[in-house]
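Work Package 4 report. The design task specified in the project plan requires that, given a folded chain encoded as C-alpha cells, an amino acid be chosen for each position. We show below one input record used in the internal validation round.
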C-alpha cells in the first residue's frame, strides 16, 4: 500500500471523515499496515485483535510504540497513554496519529 495514500486516509479519519473511517476499517480487515491497523483499532469494537495484528507486523521501535500507546488508550490507561504519547512525540513530532490519540486521552480525563 502506498504510504502517502495511507497518510491521507489517516488525516481524513482524524478530521472526522466517516468515509475515511469506513475505508480504514476495510483496509484493516485485509491489510497489514501497522498505522492502518492502529487507526482502525481506535474505532472498532474488536480492537484487541486488531492491535494484536498490528503488534505482529510492527517493524521497529516507532511502530511498536504506537501500538503500545493505542493499547493503553483502549484499555483506559490514560496516564500511561499520555506518557507514551509525550515520549513518542518528543522524537517524532510529525506523528498525527499519536497526537490524535493524545488529544483523545486528554478529553477522557
Amino acid at each position: 500500500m502506498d504510504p502517502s495514500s495511507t497518510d491521507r486516509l489517516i488525516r481524513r479519519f482524524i478530521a472526522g471523515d466517516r468515509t475515511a473511517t469506513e475505508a480504514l476499517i476495510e483496509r484493516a480487515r485485509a491489510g497489514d499496515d501497522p498505522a492502518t491497523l492502529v487507526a482502525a483499532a481506535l474505532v472498532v469494537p474488536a480492537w484487541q485483535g486488531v492491535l494484536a495484528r498490528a503488534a505482529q507486523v510492527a517493524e521497529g521501535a516507532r511502530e511498536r510504540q504506537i501500538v503500545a500507546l493505542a493499547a493503553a488508550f483502549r484499555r483506559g490507561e490514560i496516564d500511561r497513554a499520555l506518557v507514551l504519547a509525550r515520549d513518542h512525540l518528543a522524537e517524532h513530532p510529525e506523528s498525527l496519529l499519536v497526537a490524535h490519540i493524545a488529544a483523545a486521552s486528554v478529553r477522557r480525563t
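The chain has a mean pLDDT of 94. Validation will be extended to a larger panel in the next phase.
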